[in-house]
Design a protein that fits this description.
It holds the Pfam family DIOX_N. The protein is about 30% helix and about 20% strand. Helix 2 crosses helix 5 and helix 3 crosses helix 5.
Amino acid sequence: MEVAGAPIRVQSIALDADRKAVAVPPEYIQPPENRPSNGNATEHKIPMVDLDKDANPNLVRDEIGMACRDWGAFHVVNHGVSIELLDEIRRVGSFFFEELTMAEKLRYSCDPNSPASEGYGSRMLVASDDEVLDWRDYFDHHTFPISRRNPSRWPDFPPNYREVIAEYSNQMKLLAQKILGLISTSLGLSSSFIEEAMGELYQNITISYYPSCPQPELTLGLQSHSDMGFITLLIQDNVAGLQVSKDGEWVTVDPVSDAILVILGDQTEIITNGIYKSSQHRAITNADKARLSVATFHDPAKTMPVSPAFKPPRYRQVVYGDYVSSWYTKGPNGKRNIDALLI
């Protein structure tokens, strides 16, 4: 149960539902047009790109270009990150959500009145009367630049939690830089073009926990949106739940234990002048099983202007901090935030 006076966590509602029949509270019920039961679904498979160092580099570049153009998301394998590390961050994340008491977890609560503050939370936006809530709890870690990294704000149990987060952060940054280079060259740009335009790389790692839900047909674990930054690198556990939009249909991204999912963000769409699209995606819930994912976001500094690399420009230049403020003001709703920049 919740600690008195503490913010409600989705996991507490799910635990109550396990003990007795509990309906989903009304603030978690999606409007009919957004409910997963009313969405189109397809059996398409998301692209898989092999980054093996011995592979033909031109073929790898071309496959990434095709995936970016057609999907805005793709799996990568032979990515250089050890499977042991992928398994370990899933393990320590699951331990935090499933083994610690609510009182222990709430010691790390984020500021509910500050969007994107570090720590343990449930709401993506500052509370409002008309907000529909996601069926999700999360822990957000600030990991790059190093000056933002403060492990004392992260859980210290299991004992290697902080060490795992730090190593995972380092490996994800290296992989993000490699993929950004491949995205750049796939468009005929220099391999460093996007990374240089990004300026100082900012990285957050968000471990999301989606408890089992008594009425999954009414809820979303994460409502439809596109990510704000350049690229997100995501891994899942063995429970399917992530969906990406493809040609107006929702495609479930099957979990692949040794693969990392690359999701293009809005700044990549802007800098490529819409040649590559950011991926609209969402998370659905499950009546029987909880689900865990780890998303690593790679964004520019808030002061960086982002503009198209090609002419004529289809998007207005935007300062990233202004884009973030607009996103949190309007809320995640498909791709309306980037659509507002179309010329």
